[in-house]
Amino acid sequence: MSSLYKTPLTALSGVGEKRAQLFEKLGVKSVGDLIEFYPRTYEDWSVTETIENTEDGGLYCVKAVVGMPVSDARISGGRILSKTVVYDDTGTMQIVFFNNRYISAMLRSGEEYFFFGRMNQNAYGKQMVSPMFASSADGAKIHPIYRQTAGLVTKTIRGCVDQALKMLPDQINDPIPEQVRRHFGLIGLRQALCDVHFPDDRDALDAARKRLITEELLVLNLGMRDLRTRSRGVSSVKIESDYSSEFESLLPFELTGAQKRAIADCVNDLTDKKTPMNRLVQGDVGAGKTAVAASVCYTVIKNGWQTAFMAPTEILARQHFETFKKLFSNTDINVVLLTGALKEKEKRLVREQLSSGEADLVIGTHALITDKTEFKNLGLAITDEQHRFGVAQRAKLLGKGENPHLLVMSATPIPRTLGLIIFGDLDISVIDELPPSRKPVKTVLIFSAQRGRVYNFIKSEIANGRQAYIVCPLVEEGELANVASAEEYAAELMLREFSDIPVGLVHGQMKSDEKDAVMSKFANNELSLIVATTVIEVGVDVPNASVMMIENAERFGLSQLHQLRGRVGRGEAQSYCVLVSDNRSQQTGERLKIMCSTNDGFKIADEDLRMRGPGDFFGQRQHGLPQLSIADFADSKSLELSQKIADYILYVYKDLRNEELRLLKAEVDRLFNRGGTNSLN
Ligand code: ADP
Ligand code: MG
Question: What is the pTM (predicted TM-score) of this model?
Answer without folding.
Answer: 0.65
